[in-house]
Amino acid sequence: MAPNASDDSTTAGEVDDLRAGRRKAVRYVVPVTVVGIAAATIGLVPALADSGDPDLPKITAQQLLDKIAASDVQQLSGTVKITTDLGLPDLGGLESGLLSGVAQQGGDGSSADPSAKLTELASGTHTLRVAADGPDRQKLSLLENAAEYSVIHNGKDVWGYDSASNEVYHSTVDESADNGGDRTGKDADPVPATPKELTEDALKAVDDTTSVTVDGTVQVAGRDAYKLLVKPKQSGSTVGAISVAVDAKTGLPLKFTLTPASGGAAVVDAGFTQVSFSKPAASTFDFTAPKGAKVTEGDEAGKSDESGAAPEGFGGSGTPETLAQDFEGAGGPNVIGKGWTSVATFGTGGEGVPSGSDTGSDAGGALGGFLGSFGDKVSGKFGSGTVYSTRLINALITDDGKVYVGAVTKDTLVKAANTGK
């Protein structure tokens, strides 16, 4: 049952009631492949100024969660400003190029393939224009200097267009997928690209290891909103808190902020700077390949993918549940621990970290060099290995080729590896 009006936090008994009707939002069909473990959480952050504390009716955490679950916004358009601060080392832009290169290995080799292009959201500041008109029409545009990249879903077709290279990527929605057709022909998951999507992923972690409270009110993009505060109760997690600004009228999350336990700037903080709930013009979702553009058919290219290719669909909020789902294609994960300090573990099928000498690809060699530049050697009952850290996701790769990964501290990883051994 819902808590009474004087209780602003959920209880363990109420959590099961949250899960049934929570996934009704419109999602943007944007397939992404990211192989670097540090990029397992593609963060989204705006430099967004909130203003005012609107006077809204009192609401409990349970009621606010119910409001999010009941939100069924089908039509919107707006601008989302994004910045990502995973705390990766400054390698002169190598990290972005590396992630893009690795993604293209799992993609179709086109600069317009979302699998490659949208890895740019893993670092820096970006502006997105978004539009949606029901489950069959969505558009997301990444605005760049003197260029624009767009992904358009219109009916069965998914188009990616990179104006800088004049390349087009085309795929089709698999209507037989169990999520209502929200997949491409390559059966990839969408990357979280709006506060709504990030919030849905984060709320998957809500259980008796989580504190959920209402933390006042705020204005975002000119709209009155409640602030939902989600915090791990356990020590050992790298997640400090997740704050969600929820539109008071529609229940749509307008802003999502994830701050690390270590303090400092947010790792993930996505929000609308402008939003409208009017029906977008039908022409918004029209697309015809420009004359002279190179067109890559993703469905045909995907048929030749090797079975040993890297798992697709990396992305999400960094919760143990989403990490475990992401690694299902990499030998099958086991999960050690519970809640926010859970650690996913799986075998790489090799030994340790890839290096330039033991891989047949330039991208693999670059990945090995990149990871090696910020790793810390550790040892324990499990043997020895290297911990690779970001401000949110940490991974321990043992010398015998096992991986332990989660939104947890280095000590928690080592403890999990000792337990797993």
Structure report:
With 421 residues, the protein is of the alpha+beta class. The protein has two domains: 12-302, Clam (outer membrane lipoprotein receptor (LolB), chain A); 320-420, 2-Layer Sandwich (TATA-Binding Protein), CATH 3.30.310. Helices cover 18% and strands 31% of the residues. It has nine helices and 18 strands. The strands form two sheets. It has a twelve-stranded mixed β-sheet. Strands 13-14-18-17-16-15 form a six-stranded antiparallel β-sheet, sandwiched between helices. A hairpin with a 2-residue loop joins strand 7 (210-220) and strand 8. The longest helix has 13 residues, at 94-106. It is globular.
What's a concise summary of this model?
This protein is of the alpha+beta class.
How do the strands and helices of this protein lay out in sequence?
Blueprint: H1 12-18, H2 61-70, E1 75-84, H3 94-106, H4 114-117, E2 124-133, E3 137-144, E4 147-154, E5 157-162, E6 167-172, H5 195-203, E7 210-220, E8 223-232, E9 239-247, E10 253-260, E11 268-276, E12 294-297, H6 298-302, H7 320-326, E13 334-336, E14 343-347, H8 362-372, E15 375-380, E16 383-389, E17 394-398, E18 402-406, H9 410-420
Parallel strand pairs: 6-12
Antiparallel strand pairs: 1-2, 1-11, 2-3, 3-4, 4-5, 5-6, 7-8, 8-9, 9-10, 10-11, 13-14, 14-18, 15-16, 16-17, 17-18
Helix pairs in contact: 3-8
